[in-house]
Amino acid sequence: MFIKLLILIIAAVVVYRAVKSRLGGQPHQKVRSTGAKPLQADDVMIQDPQCGIYFARRQGVVLQQDGREVYFCSDACKEKYLAKQQK
Ligand SMILES: [Zn+2]
Fold this sequence. Notes:
By secondary structure, this protein is α+β, with helices and mostly antiparallel strands. Helix content is 52%, strand content 18%.
């Protein structure tokens, strides 16, 4: 009877330590993931004036026009936009 209780206590301690070490391991991964490069202004979502979809500015195609920058989701949209401007 006493031995059964002792085994139960040891088992409980082993499980407790396993859970504790597993929980203790998580903050390390969080620190690593937040160690990535900080959020940049280029990540802002903007709208394509040609097709109207929203995309991350850094993934877009930029067109310099009259001293300002116009962003497009693809080269195809940029070409269409330019063709429309020239009409
Ligand atoms: Zn587009």
